[in-house]
Amino acid sequence: MDITTIGATQMIENNLDPMDPLRIRYMLSGLDPGTVYQMQVRLRDVVSDDYSLWSNTIVIVTVDDEEERKLDGRVQDWLDYIDRQLQELLRRPFWYAQNTPTSAIIVYRPDDIFAGLRLESPGAIQLHNTDVSNTIIYMPASNIIDANEHRKSFSTRFSDLELLFAPSFINPNHNQAVMNMIRAINESGGELSDYYVRFEIQRTPMTELFDVPAITRQTNVSMSLVATNDKIRNISRWDRAVTNRAIEIVNGATADPIMRQNILNQLLENKTPEEMLDYVDVIIANVSNQISQMISTDLNAVNGILSEREETVTEFDAVMHVVATTADEETYVAAYRHVGGEWTRQDTVEYYNGQAITSRTPGTFAFTGRRVDIPGIENVYRGPTVTSIVARHGLEDLFGINLDLDQYANRQMVIGSMARIAGAPHGADLMAWGASNLNVTLTSRNATGLISSQEAVAVVMAVYESRTNSPINTILIRNYENTAGMNLDPRYAQAVRAAFELGIITNPNFNPEDPMTIGEFLDILAELTSRIPV
User: Fold this and answer.
1) Contact, 116 vs 94, CB < 8 A?
2) Measured between alpha carbons, how far is 30 from 32 in angstroms, rounded to an integer?
């Protein structure tokens, strides 16, 4: 095959590498396919029009026509794939105004786009979430009204927690914040237009509460209504304008000749499919960021579409569920709400396989989980209840993690447990606190000494009395046969009789003078905690 020497001049511009052989090769024209050429190159500066010396001679082989066609087809396949991915950005039911590893601002789209999302949701409407520390969601008021009409709830999920807003959680006809906003819009003379419901969810790292491991991050939920201004007239009109601008960004990316050339170069370099997909991901991310920057600019408080008018939502019209999804059957879950600078214990309800707090107001919430393993507890009557009590009140440090239910309970176990259930402060001396705050006469303060069954019952009933505001002396004893023949200490007799009367003691072989076993004490605790608020 003949070898022909040719010369080529490359201009230095656009930050292209002039010595890249692939670029030079496809800037030449008039070459025959399947031919070997020798090439010399020299550079020209487009500003000064100066030329460099000729380079050394290199040898190139042009591809044949069939290979060229196959290569063009592969390039077009990748361009089509990129276009499909970019079109998905235009079909999402929301726009990103920010999307970083730590924060996200998500703006939901109204009308048909949202209606499609609602129809695709057989249950709650699942809001998009990136599980970041700070999330802000803008929901057009029209979407809330539409969901209310179809009795649809909203849900947003994190890795450890779900927020579920019941249908009509904001009712435009009843919610005070909405009525204030609508009144302002009607009285504004055109200065205000439509409005958004703005969810803000801030999450902190998992932190122990009261020395108990966290099973969710602390989560603050706040909500407000944010009006738009007269620049856009309504959110639907603005969304259509945004869509048109986003289409221009997408079309500009797919029509870019540099992107086509980059794909061609990577194919010629035999990049793997994984490497090609990485390149595509960069393109998608760049286009998505351009759209996000556009949305962020539009939401700017100074010269964007939002008005200065904002109403804080202080109360929901239907409950919000805050669900700990990391709970399991062997873990006792405690729920807390931050109120007045302190964590306040909240009642939980079962929600599918999780535990939930229900609330009609925004706030900060957290869940902890305490896991207790008591060997042989599965063979004990009401074993799960006993385990729950030990976990709930953190009693394993009093009993030890390897409980022997047949051993006798010492005074620290009984008095310390009841002190915690009665509300002893964290870190308090439980024996001293119990002696001072439980309305019962203690025969000893020896923490390791044994305690008689009747004195233990008196301590238990002192907690019953304080938590129910029902003095045991006022409890009517109908059946004295339960305690007939027992040698009861007068200091504890009424407590024992009341415990039998209420069903807190169920053991017919109860001996008031004998020491109480751990199993007997925990069984009494199970009966007690079913009768008092804990």
Assistant:
1) no
2) 7
Can you read off the two tokens belonging to residue 249?
């960004």
Q: For residue range 391-405, list pLDDT tens digits in order.
A: 777 777 787 656 678
Let me know: does 508 contact 443? Beta carbons within 8 Å. Answer: no
Reference 160, options 325, 321, 367, 368; nearest CA is 325
CA pair distance 310, 307, nearest whole angstrom:
8
Class level of CATH domain 95-231+310-367: mainly beta
Burial (CB count within 10 angstroms: exposed 0-12, middle 13-18, buried 19+), residue 205: exposed
Tens-place pLDDT, residues 91-127? 999 999 999 999 999 999 998 899 999 999 888 999 9
**Residue 307: closest CA among 197, 226, 409, 372:** 226
| Structure tokens that stand for 334 in this block | 């405690």
| Euclidean distance between CA atoms 198 and 441, whole angstroms | 57
Low-confidence winner among 81-85, 219-223, 298-302, 515-519 (lowest mean pLDDT): 298-302
In angstroms, the CA 530 to CA 534 distance is 9
Give 165's strand partners: 154, 320
Domain range summary for the chain, segments of one domain joined by +:
1-62, 64-92+239-298, 95-231+310-367, 372-529
* Burial classification of residue 425, based on how many CB atoms lie within 10 Å of its CB (0-12 exposed, 13-18 middle, 19 or more buried): exposed
Distance CA 484, CA 461 (A): 20
Q: What is the DSSP letter of 360?
A: S
Compute φ and ψ for 408, nearest 5 degrees: -75, 140
Angle at 108 between CA 107 and CA 109, to 5 degrees: 120
Rounded Cα gap, residues 518 and 389, in angstroms? 13
Per the listing, tokens 């001996």 go with 511
Three-class SS state of 190: coil
**pTM, 2 dp:** 0.69
